[in-house]
Predict the 3D structure of the following.
Amino acid sequence: MKCWLVFSISACLLSASVFAEEPAASEPAGSIGIAADELLDSPVKAPQPWLRPAAGTDPKLAPLLTRWVRASQEVRSLEARLDRIVYDHVFNIEQRWEGSYVLLPDGWRLELMPVEMPRGAVSSRVDRSGRRYTFLPAVAETWVLTSEKVVWVDPEHKVWRSLSSRGNLAGWLLFCSQWNLPPSVIPFASGACEEDVRSRFCFESVKETESEVQLTARPLTMSEASWCSRVSVILDARTLATKAVQIVRPGEHEETVYVLHDVKLNEATERKAESLVPDRTGYRVTEH
């Protein structure tokens, strides 16, 4: 999947405790994702200059960002289990889901099921005055994007909706705003492309330990600023694989955290996004 697809659509569509493209010459432009370990352990065949990060990015981060971009060009597919947590800072509400995420060269699928909290469970999140957040039951949902359409499914109410993704940007924006769709993909879940580093985001800080690297980025374009005020990413220090992503919404009234588990890389490269579309038998179907 091309980098523009990943982030342009995310602008149209869509902290847990874990938080305290120009492609390489040998890789096609359709590369996505995180590097295989051997990329980081072997020498680069042809010398390549470091990226020139966007103005405002700490120049000391350039070597790390270059490694991350090169690493991201190696993966063609990603499959993972995930946890999703949403914090509403206006009403002090916390919602939790668990599910799966599949990213292919021509699309993706995000499937979320609500986590049933035990009776009497109390959130560990507190606001500035010390008041604890309240758990609010979440709703099961599935989103799928292919080269032909975007699909939203509500399995509880048996609703199946789709919109053509071909030449229908105005309708797509209305579709997303009416149904309150999240980002189309989890930003940086499969790595970063050169355009992210050069022009879309300003990378402001980094925290490193022996096992993890945490980067914080702020948007530089209206497109990205429409869905986030900042994004923090936790990477594996050795492989630069994404372990968690925190998205703080514009106005900082809401934040969403994704934590990835059991990540599989390049095991579904032959699979087509159309195969990710749920069966609509028995559902009330709306197509635009």
Remarks:
- Residues 4-17, 20-47, 180-184 have pLDDT under 50 and may be disordered.
